Each structure stands twice: as C-alpha cells, then as structure tokens.
C-alpha cells in the first residue's frame, strides 16, 4: 500500500489511518483517496486482526477539505467545466460507503481544522474525539459549492437542522468546545493527549465483542432511515446474529462467574 498520502499502522487490534499530506494540511486528493482505499482493503482482510479503526491527520490538522490544486481554471463554456459531481461519485462516495459499512467501531481523532469534505470524514466517526485547538468548518460556500461527502445527511442528525443550515450557509468556524456542546463531538482533550486518549478508547473497543459492536453501529446508521416498526424488526434480526456468537456465550459465562469477559471478536 502506498504510504505517500495515507499511513496505516496496525497494532493490538487497532488500525490507525493517518491522512498524510501535511504540507497541504491533509487536503483530500485523488492519490489520497486511492491510498485510503488500499488502507481499507488491508483493514478488511480476514487475517488483519483489526477490531477498531481510528482516522486522524498528520501534523497540525485533520483535513482542510478537498485539494483544489489545478481545479480553479474555468472555461467560458459551462458545459466544458469539470464535473465535480462525477468526481464525488467515482472517488469519494465509494470510500464513504466502505467506511460506513465497516463491521467494527470507527473513531475519528480530529487534530486542528476539519473543513469541507475533511469535516465530512470527521463526522463519519461513531465516536468523534477532538483536540482543544480543533475546529470544524463547512467551507463549501466559500468556493461556490454545496456541502458533500454526506455532510447534509450527517450534520443535521448530529446538531439539528437549524445549526446545520447555519454552519453551511455562513461557513463559520465551529470550535471543538462548542462542537461538543452542540452534540457534534463526543470528547475534547488537550491537544497533546488526543491520540493517547483515542488509542486507549480504541484498544478498549478492540477487546470487546466485535460482532455486536459492528451491529450496533449498523443499527444506529439504519435507524435514521427506518420506521419504528422496521427498526424493531431489524433489532430482532440482528440480535439473532449476536446471540449466536462465541462472545455472547463468553459474556454470559463471565457474568455468572463474576469475572471480566474475554471476548475474541467472534
């Protein structure tokens, strides 16, 4: 896997994906997306041993958004201009779908700015952790574009429609502390403690019942689309799967024996 734009480190069941273009504040480019796809392939491999994933950014920022280098030239003919929507469908959307469908917890550790589609990646976290200096920005309106990367789906479900519209229409910075007050962020830590705290949380999740944790993230993702009755039925179907795992048997046995469970992720 190319580590030019993305670094991948796997240890103790935790995969750390690091967006790695610090000179561009980790702005997302096609080479970065290709490297990210390779990282996900490594993580999803049956023998990877990965049971939890963290995404963060190298250097002083999470991601400044899409890399606009070479995209500013405009042909006077609107039909001849680049199709930004096609780029989304071909390169961004497959990555977003793969992250959303991971069968294990996915955390984002937001260091510094998360702007534009960088904020979209940050919001993909089941748990969103941020350093004190981090901030979020719906920067699209500043370059004449609309929010993408799933932002218009995720953002109102995290902070409500009024605040989502405010952030998107005004394009203002949302500091980490306010983001936590608004419900966008789960935890805020001192900058120099962010990755240690993220790793501690990820290692705890990586020793948990991975099948059940993966199904929990799926259930909450689906809950925004389902009716109450549909969600009840999905819970029933999913509980059937979880109840047949070795980890469920171990969990019950450990509970009855009054000891910590030793989950194997199976």
Give your account of this protein's structure:
The protein has 266 residues and is α/β, with parallel strands linked by helices. The chain has 2 domains: 187 residues, 2-enoyl-CoA Hydratase, Chain A, domain 1; 47 residues, Lyase 2-enoyl-coa Hydratase, Chain  A, domain 2 (Orthogonal Bundle), CATH 1.10.12. Helices cover 44% and strands 15% of the residues. The strands form 2 sheets. The chain has a 6-stranded mixed sheet with strand order 1-2-3-4-6-9, sandwiched between helices. It has a 3-stranded mixed sheet with strand order 5-7-8. A hairpin with a 2-residue loop joins strand 1 and strand 2. The longest helix is centred in the middle third of the chain and has 17 residues. The chain starts with 5 loop residues before the first strand and ends in a 10-residue tail after the last helix. 38% of the residues are buried.
What's the helix and strand layout?
Blueprint: E1 6-11, E2 14-19, H1 30-44, E3 52-57, H2 84-100, E4 106-110, E5 113-115, H3 117-123, E6 127-131, E7 135-137, H4 151-159, H5 161-170, E8 173-175, H6 176-182, E9 187-189, H7 194-206, H8 210-223, H9 228-242, H10 246-256
Parallel strand pairs: 2-3, 3-4, 4-6, 5-7, 6-9
Antiparallel strand pairs: 1-2, 7-8
Helix pairs in contact: 1-2, 4-5, 8-9
């Amino acid at each position: 896997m190319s580590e030019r734009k993305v670094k991948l480190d796997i240890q103790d069941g935790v995969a750390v994906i690091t967006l790695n273009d610090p000179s561009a504040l980790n702005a997302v480019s096609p080479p970065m997306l290709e490297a990210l796809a390779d990282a996900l392939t490594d993580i999803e491999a049956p023998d990877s041993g990965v049971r939890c994933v963290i995404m963060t950014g190298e250097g002083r920022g999470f991601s400044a958004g899409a890399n606009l280098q070479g995209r500013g030239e405009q042909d006077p003919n609107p039909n001849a201009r680049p199709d930004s929507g096609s780029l989304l469908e071909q390169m961004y959307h497959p990555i977003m779908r793969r992250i959303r469908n991971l069968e294990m917890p996915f955390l984002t550790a937001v260091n510094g700015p998360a702007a534009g589609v960088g904020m979209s990646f940050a919001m993909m976290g089941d748990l969103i952790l941020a350093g004190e200096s981090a901030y979020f920005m719906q920067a699209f309106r500043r370059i004449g574009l609309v929010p993408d990367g799933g932002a218009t789906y995720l953002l109102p479900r995290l902070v409500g429609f009024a605040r989502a519209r405010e952030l998107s229409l005004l394009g203002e910075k949302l500091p980490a502390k306010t983001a936590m007050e608004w419900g966008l962020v789960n935890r805020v830590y001192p900058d120099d403690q962010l990755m240690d705290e993220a790793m501690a949380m990820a290692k705890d999740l990586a020793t948990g019942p991975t099948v059940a944790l993966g199904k929990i993230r799926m259930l909450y993702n689906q809950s925004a689309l389902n009716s109450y009755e549909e969600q009840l039925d999905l819970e029933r179907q999913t509980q059937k799967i979880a109840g047949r795992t070795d980890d469920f048997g171990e969990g019950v046995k450990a509970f009855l024996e009054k000891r910590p469970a030793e989950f194997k992720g199976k």
